[in-house]
Design goal:
Rossmann fold, Helicase, Ruva Protein, domain 3, single chain, 5-stranded parallel beta sheet
Length: 478
Amino acid sequence: MDKPRILVVDDEASFREFVSETLQRAGYEVMEVSESTQALDAFNEFRPDLTVLDIAMPGIDGYEVCRRIRESSEVPIVMMSAMPDQRAKMKSVHLGADDYLVKPFSMTELESSAEGLLQRSSAGEPAEEAIPAPPTPASDDPKTKTPERSLRVERQAPVPRDGEAQSAGRMDIAQFQESYSRLADNVSSIVVARDTTIPLALLGLVAGGHVLIEDVRGVGKTFLAKCIADSIDGVFTRVQGTPDLLPSEITGASVFNPQEAHFTFLPGPVFSNILLADELNRASPRTQSALLEAMAEGQVTVDGVTRPLPRPFMVIATQNTQESSGTFALPDTQLDRFMVRIGIGIPSPDREKEIVLRSRQGTPQAEIVSSIGEVLAMQEFVLQVGIADNVAAFVIEVVNFIRGHSRVQGGLSPRGTVLLMRASQGWAAIQGREFVTPDDVQSVASSVISHRVVLDDTDRSLAERIVEDALEQVPVPT
């Protein structure tokens, strides 16, 4: 008897290998695929009895792969994700997935899911010569879905691939511009801010960084962060900084399960695509430090177990610059993990009038205009934006000028230099270029550098003036 065949699609190598090794030890034949753009071809070639898909993948996300498989095949599908979110689970079910596993799951959970689904499918297996009926149109009501699926892929037509699916893996500059403009227009239709505020906030998203929004109360810091999160069809969580907030309320904790006599890990709000840390400086230093590993490495370690976070992952933190009572200043190590720091400012009379008009019928809500797969593709495009040697040398000269300034006690770290370069790549892409120019570096320098500079003075504007001096005095390459 042939071994049941299982297709595993996940761009995260370590977890893909864990799933594959677990299934192979259980006696299954496994094929691994690391890129979602290859998943449909692999499905048609390997003809699996079961497919295991990760949701968050660049190019075509797991939702789209699931939908396309389900259009012409009844092969059982297991969706897996690091997002413990009911909306993600329900969307998977609506698209035709048979099970949903939250990472990190155990070997027992995976084996049980695979065994149960394969037994169900084989119980209703049709004859070898049977020709499958056309797929039933998808229903939004999970109650109307057929509880059992009769299938073997040998009797299924190949999964169709249209032009959109084939081109979704790698973006070109035109596709990036279209995706970015859709996001920027959506946020701008809701949030009234200075011309550079929204582009700089979205820069953090497309360049794979984190954003710190500092300003006085009531100018829309939290609203801007929430509008960006609402524009993406991902998982958004929010944490309100308070002195008694515990680290485990961010990262999650292991809770004893008396029925099964073992500890179960309950993921915290950090297991999301966008985490809004509202008034982060009101949380204690111990709790603030719970985000250090997550922001730098995209993972959290709890009880000695390291768990990867979903991709994309972005922290948007806010803090009120006027209030100091009951707050804890963010340490330099925390500030260094934010790619950009931005402010919103008191609006001009015309802008304030626009805010009032937009709010006449209540607080406006941003629409979903992008997917997590599209955001990942944008981030991958930014990494491919070219940087000439003379531009890289210009960046280093600017950084060293600031480090050597008489009023600076601590300049940029190498991490800060890398993030300055990455932000410049993202800004070049936003401006419609596939290469970085000195203008891109100058445009983002203040937002990337000023919060990393340790001064001999508490004047916040001094750091910005030092950055301006550096940009004026360091020769621009031609």
